[in-house]
Amino acid sequence: MTEVTTPRGPSLTDVATLAGVSHQTVSRVVNRHPNVSEATRRKVRAAISELDYRPNAAARWLATGRTHSIGILAGELAQYGPSSVLMGIQDAARGAGYFLTVVTLKDYSERAVNEALTDLLNHGVEGVIAITPHVSALEVLAEVQGSTPMVTVGGGHGLGRDVALDQEGGAIAAVEHLMELGHTRIAHLAGPLDWVDAQRRLDGWRSALGKHHLGEGPVYQGDWSARSGYEAGRAVDLDNGPTAVFASNDQMALGLVKALRERGCRIPRDISVIGFDDVPEAEFYEPSLTTVRQEFQDLGRSCIEALIDRSGELAVEGDSFRPRLVVRSSTAPAAGHRP
Q1: What's the domain count of the chain?
Q2: How far apart are CA 234 and CA 256, in angstroms?
Q3: Positive or negative: CA dihedral 163, 195, 103, 121
Q4: Which is one Pfam family of this protein (predicted)?
């Protein structure tokens, strides 16, 4: 029997020989050790590039005791917000020299969350980022915190290591924009209230109305989908109802606008509509959608920074960002209002 062999890729020793340094020096460069001169670091990187050397993750784990892997506990990645957060984390992790191991949740029971965490820890992750917007999952995580550093995305719930977009502040900015246009009857199209983001945007809507002594308009219940926004639009009272609607995400705003226009409502002349997220298609809606933009790349970078301090060790700090209002064509002054 003829033995079939596969070509061996370049080794760390090959890189060391080409760069004219020791293999320990190459290892320090690969593992981002600070005690290497910049000139040596450039020489080693040039050799790595020339040989197309790829460090073996398993070998590095055995040699250093570190995997340079971060676990992601994720749910609902089909939604724009969570998937965009994951992309931002992935970009930031790659830049910091870390790999991601992603486990998705099929449900948010205590058993499912515990099994997912166990799976990540069995893969040797050095820290965990939880993109789990459901209240029940965050409550479980608050109970099972262990020695592994963990950061939650917008969770709170006593976890203490939280990186968040200021959902409530973003909602307040949206509602105050409508108030500045003279609207006093402002409804809210809410997301599913077992999501933390939906709860906080609802809280922001209520807070803004209360601060300006305005009564609450109707709350229409959605599930993040354009279909649920469409159904809400079919239920809006066009005679004595709101003159503006703050939708908790852009997809629901899209469905809402379609239903209102089918009923003969002119957007924004009759009713102004504002969304949340600033999905890439928002500026191409008809009319283009005024919305609240979330900076997911900044959020992803801060998630990684919340785990990794300057020395490359895992830390436990958090951060918060306020979304930015993007004004387009779906909002206009209320009838009779002069800006």
Answers
A1: 3
A2: 8
A3: positive
A4: Peripla_BP_3
Q: What torsion do the CA atoms of 167, 173, 174, 176 make, to the nearest 10 degrees?
A: 140
Q: pLDDT tens across 162-220, in order? A: 787 889 999 999 999 999 999 999 999 999 988 888 999 999 999 999 999 999 989 99
Residues 176 and 289 in one domain: yes
**What's the start-to-end Cα distance of the chain, in Å?**
87
Q: How far apart are CA 230 and CA 222, in angstroms?
A: 9
Q: Which helix (H) or strand (E) holds 16?
A: helix 12-19
Residue 127 lies in a domain: yes
Mean pLDDT of the chain: 84
Residue 162 DSSP label: E
CB neighbour class for 294 (10 Å; exposed up to 12, middle 13-18, buried from 19):
buried
| pTM for the structure as a whole | 0.76
- DSSP secondary structure string, 43-95? HHHHHHHHHT----HHHHHHHHS---EEEEEE--TTSHHHHHHHHHHHHHHHH
Instruction: For residue 4, tell me if it sits in a domain.
Output: no
**Cβ atoms of 93 and 69 closer than 8 Å:** no
Q: Which of 21-35, 69-83, 112-126, 247-261 has the lowest mean pLDDT?
A: 21-35
Same domain for 262 and 239: yes
